[in-house]
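Handover notes (outgoing to incoming on-call)

Open items:
1. ABC transporter permease: sequence verified, structure written out, both below. Nothing else pending on this one.
2. Nothing else urgent.
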Amino acid sequence: MTEQSAASLTSEPTPPGPETAAAKPAEKNQKPRGLWGDAWRDLRRRPIFLVSMAIIFVLLVMSFFPQLFTSVDPNHMDLSRARQTPSAEAWFGYDTQGRDIFARSIYGARASIIVGVMATVLTVLIGSIFGLIAGYFGGWLDSLLSRFGEIFLGLPFVLGAIVILTTLNPATEVPDAFKITSLVILSISILSWPISMRIMRSAAISARNQDYVKAARALGAGPVRIILRHMLPNCLAPVLVYATIALGSFIAVEATLSFLGLGLRSPVVSWGVMIADSRQYIQTSPHLLIFPAAFLVVTVLAFVMLGDAVRDALDPKQK
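ABC transporter permease structure tokens:
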């Protein structure tokens, strides 16, 4: 053995340089991200997501704490000010009964958003349960649930809502705020759940053929455990996108039903009720319609923009 090789064996290892020392913490901090981690990282870079979330945050604060935006009672009437145009005292003017439109627009966000959120949750819940069961088991059960969903999907939405709301809540009855709100949520959910069922069913059919489901089944896991523990987390992405867009659509549906006299009615304060009250004065007093309609349009647009951003972030083809 030469002196040079002996020296190389006995010499101490060279201490790591600054580049090597800096590389180790960087490698240690880089943890593998899943689908949701990548989606969140992508969403934070999208201006459309940030703008929509800012609008939705303001709307949620407006719904839970309307006193932060106005101190006026939305139901206070002063007939001497009926249909007065916007002024410094009342930024949006007064409605046909002398109520402050700005205050009613602020307080109206609560009912409209509650209907949209609850209808979306109920729709996705019903559709996801049926979709997972149909997609996992397949066969005659899949055919039965699919045909059952097509019955509701084939009903015209407005006609079905008219039948449900007029049957369960006749116009001759004294309006009850909780009952009317519950019926509107129920009617929207009954007529909309087949769409979320189809989305979840397609995702479940794709997931049940994956290796992790086959492995869980081989290890003796039951259907309930496989569906809830393995399939559900991997099938949520497309349903979440649908739910985000549907929430804005359901808020618009509530306004449509209220405009037709079938949805929310006074004493409930909502944008749809305000638009319905202004339909006879659109030409003479357009401010009665413009301001609640503007709140409605901005809200629906914010949720649609959020849904588009989430869809693009979760779609691997967009990477």
